[in-house]
Write a structure and sequence with these properties.
Length: 168
């Protein structure tokens, strides 16, 4: 998979290939500072996955939206713990901080998981704002969505906002 740089990309993932696709995307971006927003997997599990798949996690800043909902967290190098997936303002501020602190690439894993917590309109506004911020700074944004959500209103709205849509 070749991810175009300095673009907003929507990647449609077949559920059976989800894990493999996430690994491929992460491998491709591992050599440059990348901000990985996880809405479905905790920091430790993600880093363990990276290690098992020989991905250098040193260049990743993880924004973890789930761990704090389960356990008390201790500060971790290269991780920002968000209070919950419902804390969209907190998430937006954490992403904004990384846009301004040198991250070149941003992965949102995933829009499908966001649908559990937010309506289409809220997610669309969040994504539209995020796309404007990354374009202004010439960053790469990778938005992941399940192929199961391809017929959703959210997919239709997001697809009009991005530079490219890829299916894997």
């Amino acid at each position: 998979m070749k991810i175009p740089k300095n673009k907003a990309i929507l990647i449609v993932v077949v559920p059976e290939n989800y894990h493999k696709s996430i690994i491929e995307i992460s491998k491709e971006l591992q050599d440059e500072k990348t901000c990985y927003v996880t809405i479905n997997k905790g920091f430790e599990a993600l880093i363990d996955d990276f290690k098992k798949n020989k991905i250098n996690s040193e260049n990743f800043i993880v924004i973890d939206c789930v761990t704090k909902t389960i356990v008390n967290t201790k500060p971790e190098k290269n991780c920002i713990f968000i209070s919950s997936p419902n804390a969209l303002t907190e998430l937006s501020l954490a992403i904004g901080k990384n846009i301004n602190n040198g991250a070149l690439h941003f992965i949102i894993d995933s829009l499908s998981n966001m649908l559990i917590y937010y309506d289409n309109e809220t997610i669309s506004k969040f994504v539209q704002d995020l796309i404007q911020k990354v374009r202004k700074k010439n960053k790469t944004l990778v938005l992941i969505i399940s192929s199961k959500d391809k017929k959703s209103k959210l997919f239709d709205e997001i697809e009009t906002l991005v530079d490219n849509t890829m299916e894997v």
